[in-house]
Automatic annotation (TrEMBL):
<feature type="domain" description="Rab3-GAP regulatory subunit N-terminal">
    <location>
        <begin position="34"/>
        <end position="452"/>
    </location>
</feature>
<dbReference type="InterPro" id="IPR032839">
    <property type="entry name" value="RAB3GAP_N"/>
</dbReference>
<dbReference type="Pfam" id="PF14656">
    <property type="entry name" value="RAB3GAP2_C"/>
</dbReference>
<dbReference type="Pfam" id="PF14655">
    <property type="entry name" value="RAB3GAP2_N"/>
</dbReference>
<dbReference type="GO" id="GO:0005096">
    <property type="term" value="F:GTPase activator activity"/>
</dbReference>
<dbReference type="InterPro" id="IPR026059">
    <property type="entry name" value="Rab3GAP2"/>
</dbReference>
<protein>
    <submittedName>
        <fullName>RAB3 GTPase activating protein subunit 2 (non-catalytic)</fullName>
    </submittedName>
</protein>
<dbReference type="GO" id="GO:0005737">
    <property type="term" value="C:cytoplasm"/>
</dbReference>
<dbReference type="InterPro" id="IPR029257">
    <property type="entry name" value="RAB3GAP2_C"/>
</dbReference>
<keyword id="KW-0963">Cytoplasm</keyword>
<keyword id="KW-0343">GTPase activation</keyword>
<comment type="similarity">
    <text>Belongs to the Rab3-GAP regulatory subunit family.</text>
</comment>
<feature type="domain" description="Rab3GAP regulatory subunit C-terminal">
    <location>
        <begin position="576"/>
        <end position="1153"/>
    </location>
</feature>
Length: 1176
């Protein structure tokens, strides 16, 4: 949106920006006070304005237009007008505009769409699109809606700050309803998608997930007119004990840990301000059926049954039926007031919560504005003479330019807080610094304006999706109905600083002004601005900007440079300035390296020989401050190539300087050695390493690969990254390159085998870029033999992939490759530590959610929409996730068994990088982890295997019901603790359930490996895939699970044999038959199956031959009667070659003993099959 500057006062430090909303198709001009009677709300993105009065409303949306000067500007134009009320007599009482974040990965912080939420005097809350289409309506309380307020996600500025949940709060005269933001976001998206589908094709109505909300009955306050939902807070121990003593008396008990509470602050009368605290978990969230409002023929039958649904284009009878059947209104949970600010004569009118959730401004009928400290519950400041005041807040971050020159630049950016007060009686807008600061700005505005402060940003943003976003939102806007102008107030950060710091902030503003002047070719004025800058570091940066600009003439540059030279020389900034320009122009330097290196060498020699540069008393055995300054610039530079050239030149210059100072007696026989030279040798070696690493990181990823931009590296960043910083950078590169774990293993194994490496280069299908990346990876690993040892690199790759998977759980391949990288780690100690960290950080919560979801649903999980809501991923991704859980726990068990056989590895770094300070590497953290309890890991692996089997084969099962109480209690505990595990013989009923489930798994596997699309049966024993439902390891897994679940494995083997024969897979059945122990029982089972096959061939086949009929007549009566009793419909593959059936009967004769009761029957079957085969 293009905003042109508009100065309200003569104060140059505060400016506003405005744009004129144009109301199309509205020609009548009303008097100015009309706005005071309207309900007005503005989206925090300033792209949607809502005006409502009684039952009517107008939506104004942002639109581009061309002005007379030819430039484009953004205006607000009417996009929809109409009547919002559905019930007779109800009026609009409150509204807000909530922008919803886009879920696309390419989004950078712009809203996907904006939802208009409107509250009515009837108690209804309705949700509309920007075009006035009703999405859903809710009746949560049968009193007029007083205020609607929203809270969205804010990135915590400091560690330890409680992360607040998104929510929509609705205030009624004696009740407060809070709707969970995540639930609301999902419901609004579902309703909007359904509206789009219905408008396009009239599709079926899909019921969106219900809204989760809490309803509190606010007690002990006479009148309530406004509120603020502060969010979740946790008291310190002292405050907890104080509250317990006040509320419970001397004998009050205190819990071990302070409970988390939601704080609500209300204003009104009796008392003037009330503080309410709702302990988390004291009230379960209520579920409201979402009322869809979709114009579709298919929905007419649903309106009468679904409570609270409102539709479009219904006839009169349908409307009356809907209105008569109002939805059920849940009762409110009573919530007593904790304390208040009593003032019998004063009545509060509004409350405005600060962005940091610690302060609030309250207006009252006495014309006062009161500042509240919400944590302490006290009034800390009061302003008089502001009748009918309107409030807003401005939170201004510290400017990045100012932070770069601050000694505390490594700390988080500071924020300044300002309170904006609009006094309509006086027509003035004031800005006050918090908490006890002065008034920093005053603007003369109209007396009929409306101050618009949203207090929230985009809904649907969280800690993961907000990374890298720049939210384009305004904080405070002023709407003037007379001029049709919407103004925004911008306050510089330095107005909140003391005088000394304000001087430096003023220099930053002068630097910005200089940048503007250079862009407009104002060289003469730029000189005066540059000379007015007092701060040395900012003056240095200004000169760098001047030298890098192409607009000023040479004479201007010479004049300015000479005027600044003395100042920079006194402060030792000349070499710093010279190298900064050198490093910024890396491409130009590399185009003519010989010439530029020669010139740099000459300049460094000349500067070092100047008076005051290198001290005369400097001892070559110590470090020179002047040369240390040059070295620091090279260490901090991200331009590794230019920095390396500069370091080589400086090393040569230092060597010449030391040689000239060396003792003449030693000069001819000994080479001068000093600490300064050693420092330069280390710096050059480090820059060589950085250059190779940076070249690798800049290799572009393949098209369509995931991952962000390549990270810039320098000596400083690598040292600050700790011992694992280098491996972490390379692991991110591996992720961006989408390099498979096995491929990475091949490259690392071949880095020492040049012959194999040559074969690798000639391998077909490898592109030039891929070959280049592999060469560079080998080169980087050779330069960092310790930091990039295979185990460390695999460990960091494993962690990178699991972190990326956690950001997007639908990408199951990321977790699979994380487990594969972990499997490639050779050290069991590192494997065990990473497994436990992955389990506790990323896996256990989702696994427990999946288990409890499958336990509670009444149908198969794939049919449940709660799969995404509970576990955070769809059914396919959840199947892959469960398979990875099984593999992870298997790796953990193998590592735990092997740790005692080998010693823990000793991690080291390269000599030149031993000064690394920062976080420990993943491998170091892994070695610090405690050992695990093997039976508990095996217990969880058993559960994960059952869950994986159920999801793979679409089986309905209650997995936790397959375990006794001890087994259930042991689940999802810390793997390092010793739990009470199931022991002894299990209950026969439980064993029967387990056996039934395993038999169903085996049946599903046999059905999966058969190709139903082919009319001919599968008779060959072709190799099966290694993953998925057709994997060859499912039978052995079921047998292993059976032994752990106390299920007889021979029953499972016999079941596999029978199922394979049933499917017509005779060769695979014969392989499994060799392992069956109880051949008698198997023979009896296969005898029935053989009879079914023969019965189908003789009695039920459509292609019966004359020979078959004659053979049937010659059969013994007992055999004929037995065949007629067989039911071939139980066979999934009844049509099999007679040769296979003959082979099966032969196997029967072999496994059945002669004294078996059915041995003679088997002989008759053999004769019948041989006769039938002969006839064919």
């Amino acid at each position: 949106m293009t905003l042109f500057p508009f100065t309200l006062t003569e104060n140059d430090t505060i400016s506003t920006e405005c744009f004129a909303p144009q109301v199309e198709e509205v020609t009548t001009v009303q008097s100015a006070p009309w706005l005071q009677d309207c309900v007005v709300s503005l989206s925090p993105c300033s792209d949607l304005l809502v005006l409502a009065h009684d039952q009517k409303a107008a939506f104004l949306s942002a639109k581009w237009r061309s002005v007379d000067s030819g430039r484009e500007e953004m205006t607000l134009a009417v996009s929809w007008t109409g009547t919002l009320s559905n019930d007779e007599g109800e009026c609009v009482s409150s509204s807000i505009c909530i922008p919803l974040a886009s879920q696309k990965r390419s989004s950078t912080g712009r809203p996907d769409w904006t939802c208009v939420v409107v509250g009515f005097t009837s108690g209804y809350v309705r949700f509309y699109t920007e075009n006035g289409v009703l999405l859903l309506a809710q009746l949560l309380h049968e009193d007029p809606v007083l205020r609607l307020k929203c809270r969205t996600y804010e990135i915590p500025r400091h560690p330890g700050v409680t992360e607040q949940h998104e929510e929509l709060s609705i205030l009624y005269p004696a009740a407060l309803v809070t709707i969970d933001g995540f639930s609301l976001f999902q419901s609004l998206r579902a309703c909007r998608n359904q509206v789009a589908r219905a408008a396009a094709a009239g599709s079926d109505v899909i019921q969106p997930p219900p809204l989760a909300y809490k309803k509190w009955g606010l007690q002990d306050m006479e009148t309530i007119v406004d509120h603020s939902s502060v969010g979740i807070m946790t008291l310190c121990v002292f405050d907890q004990m104080r509250n317990a003593s006040i509320l419970g008396g001397f004998n009050a008990s205190v819990k071990g840990s302070p409970p988390a509470m939601c704080q609500y602050v209300t204003v009104g009368g009796g008392p003037y301000t009330g503080f309410y605290y709702a302990v988390e978990g004291s009230s379960q969230p209520l579920l409201s059926h979402v009322a869809l409002a979709v114009a579709s023929k298919l929905t007419s039958a649903l309106f009468s049954a679904a409570s609270g649904w409102l539709g479009w284009h219904k006839n009169k009878n349908e409307e009356e039926a809907v209105q008569k059947h109002k939805p059920k209104v849940e009762p409110a949970t009573p919530l007593g007031i904790r304390f208040g600010l009593p003032d019998s004569r004063r009545h509060g009118e509004s409350i405005c919560l600060s962005p940091c959730n610690t302060l609030a401004g309250v207006t009252d009928d006495f014309g006062r504005v009161t500042l509240l400290d919400l944590a302490r519950g006290i009034c800390i400041r009061m302003w008089k003479g502001y009748r009918d005041a309107q409030l807003g807040w401005l939170q201004v971050p510290e400017e990045r330019g100012d932070r770069e020159f601050s000694p505390s630049s490594a700390l988080p950016r500071r924020h300044a807080l300002f309170l904006v007060i609009y006094a309509p009686r006086r027509g003035i807008l004031e800005v006050w610094a918090m908490q006890q600061g002065p008034r920093v700005g005053a603007f003369t505005v109209g007396k009929h304006c409306r101050l618009l402060y949203a207090g929230y940003r985009l809904m649907g943003v969280n800690s993961v999706t907000s990374q890298g976003w720049q939210l384009h939102t305004q904080q405070v806007c002023l709407l003037d109905p007379i001029t049709g102008v919407l103004r925004t107030v911008n306050i510089p950060f330095h107005l909140a600083l003391s005088d000394k710091k304000s001087e430096r902030a003023k220099d930053i503003h002068l630097f910005k002004r200089l940048t503007t002047l250079l862009r407009n070719d104002s060289g003469s004025e730029a000189k005066s601005v540059l000379l007015d800058i007092k701060h040395p570091a900012i003056k240095k940066q200004a000169l760098e900007s001047l030298l890098s600009n192409k607009n000023p003439p040479v004479s201007c540059l010479t004049n300015i440079t000479c005027s600044l030279y003395d100042t920079l020389k006194q402060q030792g900034k000349v070499p710093s300035l010279l190298l900064s320009v050198w490093l910024q122009r890396e491409k130009e330097v590399l185009q003519k390296p010989e010439e530029t290196v020669r010139n740099l060498h000459t300049l460094l020699i000349a500067l070092s020989n100047m008076k005051g540069a290198v001290e005369e008393s400097w001892d070559p055995q110590s470090v020179s401050p002047w040369w240390q300054q040059v070295r620091s610039i090279c260490i901090q530079s991200h331009n590794a190539a230019a920095a390396l050239l500069a370091a080589l030149v400086a090393h040569h210059a230092v060597k010449a300087c030391i040689t000239s100072r060396a003792d003449s007696k030693l000069q001819s026989e000994w080479e001068a050695v000093s600490l300064e030279l050693e420092q330069w040798v280390v710096c050059v070696r480090q820059l060589e390493d950085v250059l190779v690493l940076q070249t690798l990181l800049l290799v572009p990823p393949p098209q369509g690969a995931a991952g962000g931009a390549a990270a810039q590296c320098s000596i400083k960043t690598l040292l600050e990254g700790g011992t694992g910083g280098i491996a972490d950078s390379v692991s991110k590169w591996v992720f961006r390159q989408n390099l498979a774990p096995e491929r990475l293993k091949e490259i690392l194994q071949k880095k020492e085998d040049k012959e194999e490496d040559d074969k690798l280069k000639q391998k077909a299908g490898d592109g030039l870029k891929e070959q280049e990346g592999k060469k560079l990876l080998v080169a980087v690993c050779q330069r960092f033999p310790h930091s990039l040892s295979p185990d460390l690199l695999f460990a960091h790759c494993c962690w990178e992939y699991v972190v990326q998977w956690n950001k997007d759980p639908e990408e199951g391949q990321h977790l699979c490759w994380a487990v594969e990288h972990l499997r490639l780690v050779s050290s069991p100690h590192i494997q065990l530590g990473i497994c436990t960290m992955m389990w506790s950080t990323f896996i256990v919560k989702r696994l427990s959610a999946a288990a409890y979801l499958m336990e509670k649903v009444t149908a198969y999980v794939k049919d449940m929409c709660s799969c995404v809501q509970d576990v955070g991923m769809g059914d396919k991704a959840m199947t892959s996730f469960l398979g990875c859980c099984v593999q992870l726990l298997q790796i953990l068990m193998e590592a735990d068994s092997a740790v005692e056989e080998v010693s823990a590895p000793e991690l080291s770094v390269e000599e030149v990088w031993c000064g690394a300070e920062g976080p420990a590497s993943i491998a170091e953290l892994a070695l610090e982890q405690r050992g695990v309890h093997y039976p508990l890991v095996q217990h969880h692996c058993l559960l994960a295997s059952l869950l994986h089997a159920a999801m793979t084969f679409s089986l309905k099962v209650k997995p936790l019901s397959l375990f006794d109480s001890k087994g259930k209690n042991a689940f999802f505990r810390d793997l390092t603790t010793i739990q009470l595990m199931p022991s002894g013989d299990m209950d026969p009923g439980l064993v029967s359930l387990r056996q039934e489930f395993l038999l169903r798994v085996l049946t599903s596997w046999v059905q999966a490996i058969d190709d139903f699309s082919s009319s001919a049966p599968v008779t060959s024993s072709a190799p099966l895939p290694s993953c998925g439902p057709k994997a060859d390891w499912w039978p052995s897994l079921c047998l292993e699970l059976g032994s752990l679940l106390q299920v007889n494995p021979d029953i499972l083997r016999r079941h596999i044999v029978c199922e394979l024969y049933n499917q017509g897979l005779d060769l695979r059945a014969e392989e499994v038959m060799l392992e069956v122990e109880d051949k008698d029982v198997l023979g009896s089972q296969l005898l029935v199956l053989t009879g079914q096959r023969l019965s189908y061939s003789l009695l039920h086949s459509q292609s019966q031959t004359q020979a078959a009929m004659e053979l049937l007549a010659r059969l013994p009566p007992t055999l004929c009667t037995w065949l007629k009793a067989m039911d071939p419909s139980e066979l999934r593959c009844p049509l099999v070659p007679l040769t296979q059936t003959s082979r099966l009967v032969g196997r029967l004769i072999e496994i059945l003993p002669e004294n078996h009761a059915q041995y003679s029957l088997a002989l008759h079957l053999l004769e019948a099959v041989e006769a039938l085969t002969t006839e064919d």
